[in-house]
Specification:
Number of helices: 42
Largest sheet: 2 strands, antiparallel
Protein name: TEL2-interacting protein 1
Distance between the termini: 139 Å
Strand order of the largest sheet: 1-2
Organism: Podospora bellae-mahoneyi
InterPro entries: ARM-like, ARM-type_fold, TELO2-interacting_protein_1, TPR_TTI1_C, TPR_TTI1_N, Tti1, TTI1_rpt
Strand content: under 5%
Number of strands: 2
Shape: elongated
Structural class: mainly alpha
């Protein structure tokens, strides 16, 4: 019963196969037109493939070699005529053969069938040797062929892969041809899928073949083919997965053929045999037909393998991590399993493995590492030392390469080698000495080869006019330094690798030793590049040393070993050199390279971070030099200076850079004043003072009295140097800018004096309440006069009041008179002193500084430098609002600067004249009526008066010549001048604007006149008094454009007139002349029009009416009981 149960599924499956195999066999044998029957044959083949694979996935126990032989019968008929069928049929047959091999024949494939299938598949893939292909083979067919070939070699009995002495049963020649086809597929430019299948077939050959002599026969061609694919230039054209597969296959080939276990007998013979015996043995072997494994063969093969490996190991520069990992595994496998047989290749294998070794965290503990091999084979340590020394010696040469990847690989290799040497305790003083020199020379090479980056001054993003606060953790832009060397973006990876090498090069003691050796080059080198490289290297080494020792100090105390003392001494020497570099900036004629100064700033900041608040005494020496770099011409130095100031402020416990400078302002200001007093005319002093004041704000201004005095002295001594004078006035301008922001500008104590508002206001009716208040004040004055008149008469006392006066000795009349006169004089002196003391108490130091600066400007407003004149005028404009509240101190200053200020209106440079007009306008706002007589005196001066200047500016702005009469000017009808006309209806005629352009009509005629109707009509708005303005044709200049110099100068003149009329009392005659000059622009200047209407609104209206600049006037007809008014009609209405 059990036999029937087992055979029943097999029988059913056989019946299914039979229903397909019989028609397929008949069709293949009897077919006359192979092409016509190819479709039906393909269907049968696919049906068989589906049946077989389905059964194999469900229950492959019923599949055996007999069923496979049964299915192979019709397939053999198809394969016999395969050249006549399409390649799709052949491909389907090959796919079915793979199913039969894997699940049917398995290891029971006969030798004859094995050879036939090898030849069939090899010819199908690679063609018949010596014959041309009749048709192209698709890629899919080749892939199926390699898959079937690999399955055939993997599943066959290993005995089939050995040499046989029986004629006709040796399968090795057929297998050799198949290996050749595989190697050709690997080396040719075929798709990656085909190459992967070919490599898989090669792996199957070297896994399944047990005969080492057979594998030795295949070894040269296989290594040559795989090495060709893994070597340049083909490796650049190959996908990384193909490279990884080839490396894994090459590792398998070497281990299975040349592994120490495979050739241990030959290795023993090499150790015991003499050279003569080896030579005799090799001569006898040369007569043999096949390769025999002899010691001579092993030596020759090892030499050839070293050549092949030297080409393959160039893959270490490949960027793919998968390829590098596969190459590392190859090196480790050969060093471990082929340690003796490939001893000649140990040096290059150790070097490559050292270059590709991963970090401990990334490497699996289950895999053998190079460190494990060194523990097993101590002789490998010599190879590591040799490789590391050659790398260190050749590092400067590698840094000359134009390939950044090559540089990074060289640096990374030294780092990995150094880590392994430290881990294995392989100390070498020679290596340490050469490492310091190599690192310095490499950095010098990189600096000379690198191009200076194009630095864009991006400090516009840093607002230096505001106090610079500390950088928070969320914004580290100004808390980190930009790189000093290798600053280009393309060298960023190389710079990072170099930094990793320096930070992890060895223990802290080694880093201190290397840094100490660099200090001699830092101090004594005359070559700037060498000095910079040594300085940077020493600083980086000491920083890394401190970082390492900080981690170790948390666990152990090494103070007794003296390492900490050596470390501190080395850094102190480096810091002393840095302070000398910073201090020598303003003293040397030619400044040092900016990289050296930037490194000095970094060392200073790092020292501050270590000492924290204990660094405050060092600020006396370093704060001023650091601040001088804010005015450097190099954007890199300015950025470094800002970062250093932020770090200093943070480390020393200050809340901001402003607090840092204010707290240390005394000796900073002393340093600046000392340089100014010693005639140090370098721009560093003025620049640092300007930046310092800008950073600090108004808080520093009260401390600047001595410094401003030094600036005044420098101005007296160097007034003939315009550039330097301009720099000094930049300082004074910054003092003014920050001083006017002070909230305690006027009074040192008590209430501040109220500011006087000089703006003119129009007449406002007082109303009943105002009248009553005025009457009350008058009655109070009358009552006061009466009470004073009723008081009894008291003579003037002849004796001074006060205690003790009555006890004095009686004097004569003459003596009393003399004493009274002396007392009166004393009283006057005391009263004067009290007034002066009161006056001095009122003004703060900031106010006094601003007063002195304003007084000084009068002497330099005639400077030949236009920019200086303009900056001085801007300074005056800025300081006037701050000084004007105290009239007793301000008005004398106005009297001083007035003459030279009005002269600047006639400056040949328009931008200076514009600044002068603005300054005069500010002066009018601050002084008010005090300038009335002065304005009147300069208004009508012949040729150079203010009126003549405005007429000239207006003519230039309007595009007209001086003296040209205005056209389109109308007069009131019936008035003087006789230019007006009155209509018959009694209406008043005024010129109007044309409807199309809105400009005034150029001629006065009936068509261009508007009749004003004084009769009934809509009421007008009280805001403009019933007047509607016409757009003046003069508001837009006719020449030069809106932004031309003449137009901007005219706008400044209009602004000056507005300020004069608004804040200064002008006489009627002068007002009429101003109105005559400005009437054309009043419609477009609301502020000017309002100011002039405040002074004399009727005159403004009348002049506008005369010019025809009013659209119309609507007046209600008066109504009064008992009276009648005549209606004024226009146009005869």
């Amino acid at each position: 019963m059990s036999t029937i149960a087992v055979s029943t599924p097999r029988t059913e499956f056989f019946q299914k196969l039979k229903r397909v195999c019989v028609p397929l066999n008949q069709l293949a044998v009897r077919s006359q037109d192979k092409t016509a029957d190819a479709k039906e044959i393909l269907q049968h083949v696919e049906s068989l493939t589906e049946l077989w694979s389905t059964q194999a996935s469900q229950d492959d126990s019923i599949l055996d070699d007999r069923l496979a032989d049964y299915v192979f019968v019709p397939l053999s008929q198809v394969l016999r005529d395969r050249d006549q069928y399409p390649m799709r049929v052949v491909e389907g047959v090959i796919r079915l053969l793979r199913e039969l091999i894997q699940h049917g024949w398995k290891v029971k494939t006969s030798a004859a069938l094995f050879r036939q299938l090898l030849i069939l598949l090899s010819f199908t893939i690679g063609g018949v040797p010596g014959q041309e292909r009749k048709k192209d083979v698709p890629e899919e067919t080749i892939i199926e062929g390699f898959k079937t070939l690999g399955a055939l070699i993997t599943s066959v009995d290993p005995a089939r892969l050995q040499r046989s002495e029986i004629p006709g049963e040796d399968s090795i020649p057929a297998l050799g041809h198949s290996v050749t086809v595989m190697i050709d597929a690997v080396t040719e430019d075929l798709p990656s899928l085909i190459q992967l299948e070919a490599v898989a077939c090669l792996r199957a050959v070297f896994i399944s073949t047990r005969d080492n002599s057979v594998l030795a026969q295949f070894l040269p061609g296989t290594v040559s083919g795989l090495g060709k694919r893994l070597s340049p230039p083909l490796e650049r054209q190959t996908q990384k997965r193909v490279l990884v597969a080839c490396l894994e296959a090459l590792q398998l080939v070497f281990v299975n053929v040349l592994g120490d276990l495979k050739v241990r007998g030959l290795l023993r013979q090499l150790e015991t045999a003499t050279p003569a015996a080896e030579e005799t043995k090799s001569e006898g072997d040369s007569e043999s037909r096949d390769i025999e494994l002899t010691p001579s063969w092993l030596k020759a093969t090892a030499a050839q393998v070293k050549i092949a490996l030297s080409a393959v190991l160039k893959l270490r520069s490949n960027e793919s991590e998968e390829v590098q990992r596969a190459l590392y595994r190859l090196c480790i496998a050969l060093l471990d399993e082929c340690h003796a047989s490939l001893a000649d290749s140990q040096s290059i294998l150790v070097e490559t493995a050292l270059m590709l070794q991963e970090d401990d965290a990334a490497q699996s503990r289950l895999e053998t590492s190079l460190q494990d091999l060194v523990s097993i084979y101590p002789e490998l340590s010599n190879g590591i030392k040799s490789a590391l020394y050659s790398w260190v010696a050749g590092l400067p040469r590698m840094m000359q390469s134009s390939n950044e990847k090559t540089k990074q690989l060289a640096i990374r290799s030294i780092l990995r080698g150094s880590k392994l040497a430290v881990a294995m305790q392989m100390d070498s003083s020679t290596l340490d000495d050469s490492l310091a020199d190599s690192l310095r020379d490499s950095i010098i090479t990189l600096m000379k080869a690198s191009k200076p980056p194009k630095v864009i001054d991006d400090l516009g993003a840093v607002d230096l006019s505001q106090p610079t606060a500390l950088i928070t953790s969320g914004n580290t832009e100004l808390a980190t330094y930009s790189p000093v060397i290798l600053g280009s973006e393309g060298q960023k990876a190389t710079r990072n690798e170099l930094g990793s090498l320096i930070s992890e090069i060895g223990p802290s003691s080694l880093q201190v030793k290397l840094a100490t050796s660099m200090l001699s080059y830092v101090r004594d080198s005359d070559e700037p590049t060498t000095q910079i490289a040594s300085f940077w290297l020493a600083f980086q080494l000491l920083k890394s040393s401190y970082a390492q020792s900080a981690d170790m100090d948390e666990l152990f105390d090494f103070s007794a070993l003296g390492e900490t003392q050596q470390q501190d001494e080395a850094f102190q020497e480096l810091y002393d050199f840095s302070t000398s570099v910073l201090a020598s900036r303003s003293d040397s004629v030619e400044p040092p390279p900016w990289q050296l100064e930037a490194l000095a700033l970094e060392v200073t900041a790092y020292y501050a971070t270590r000492l924290e608040e204990d660094f405050r005494p060092e600020l006396i020496d370093v704060l001023y030099p650091v601040t001088t770099f804010l005015g450097s011409e190099k954007p890199q130095l300015r950025r470094h200076a800002i970062t250093t100031l932020n770090i200093l402020a943070s480390s020393c416990g200050y809340g901001s850079v402003s607090e840092l400078i204010v707290d240390n302002a005394d000796y900073m200001l002393d340093s600046v004043s000392l340089r100014l007093n010693t005639f140090d005319i370098s721009p560093a002093s003025t620049r640092v003072l300007t930046m310092m004041i800008r950073l600090t704000g108004p808080k520093l201004v009260p401390f600047l009295e001595d410094t401003v005095q030094a600036v005044f002295a420098a101005l007296d001594n160097y007034h003939g140097y315009p550039v330097f004078v301009e720099g000094l006035f930049d300082v004074l301008g910054e003092v003014v800018t920050q001083g006017v922001k002070s909230d305690v500008l006027l009074l040192a104590g008590g209430d501040s004096e109220p500011a006087v508002d000089h703006k003119k206001r129009g007449y406002r009716p007082q109303g009943v309440e105002g009248i009553l208040e005025t009457v009350g004040k008058h009655l109070a004055r009358v009552e006061g006069s009466k009470s004073r008149a009723e008081e009894p008469f008291r003579p003037v006392p002849r004796k001074a009041w006060g205690p003790g006066r009555e006890k004095r000795k009686e004097k004569s009349f003459v003596e009393e008179l003399e004493a009274a006169e002396d007392d009166d004089d004393d009283d006057d002196d005391e009263e004067k002193k009290e007034m002066e003391e009161e006056k001095e108490a009122v003004q703060t130091p900031t106010y006094q500084l601003l007063t002195r600066i304003l007084t000084l400007t009068q002497h330099y407003l005639t400077s030949p430098t236009p920019t200086l004149r303009k900056s001085l005028l801007d300074l005056i404009t800025t300081v006037i609002p701050a000084l004007s509240p105290s009239e007793n101190a301000f008005l004398p200053l106005v009297n001083v600067i007035w003459p030279v200020l009005t002269t600047r209106l006639h400056d040949p440079e328009p931008f200076v004249a514009i600044a002068a007009a603005k300054a005069l306008g500010g002066l009018c706002k601050g002084a008010g009526d005090f300038l009335g007589t002065r304005l009147r005196s300069v208004w009508g001066e012949k040729g150079q008066g203010l009126r003549a200047w405005m007429i000239k500016v207006k003519a230039e702005a309007m595009g007209q010549k001086k003296g040209t009469s205005n056209k389109g000017r109308g007069l009131i009808g019936g008035g003087g001048g006789g230019g007006g006309n009155r209509s018959d209806g009694g209406g008043i005629m005024i010129p109007t604007s044309t409807a199309s352009t809105g400009l005034l009509s150029s001629s006065i005629g009936t068509g261009g006149l508007l009749n004003l109707d004084f009769g009934s009509g809509p009421t007008t708005s009280p805001d403009n008094g019933g007047m509607k303005m016409v757009s003046s044709s003069y508001t837009t200049p006719s020449g030069g454009g809106r932004f031309s110099q003449s137009t901007r100068l005219w706008e400044a003149a209009v602004g000056l007139v507005r300020d004069v009329v608004s804040y200064v009392k002008v006489e009627d005659e002068m007002f009429d002349e101003i109105l005559e000059l400005m009437v054309d622009v009043l419609p477009g200047q609301k502020e000017l029009k309002d100011a002039m209407e405040t002074v004399n609104g009727d005159a403004v209206w009348l002049r506008l009416y005369e010019r025809g600049l009013l659209r119309g006037l609507e007046v209600k007809q008066p109504v009064m009981e008992g009276f009648g008014f005549v209606r004024v009609e226009v146009g005869g209405r």
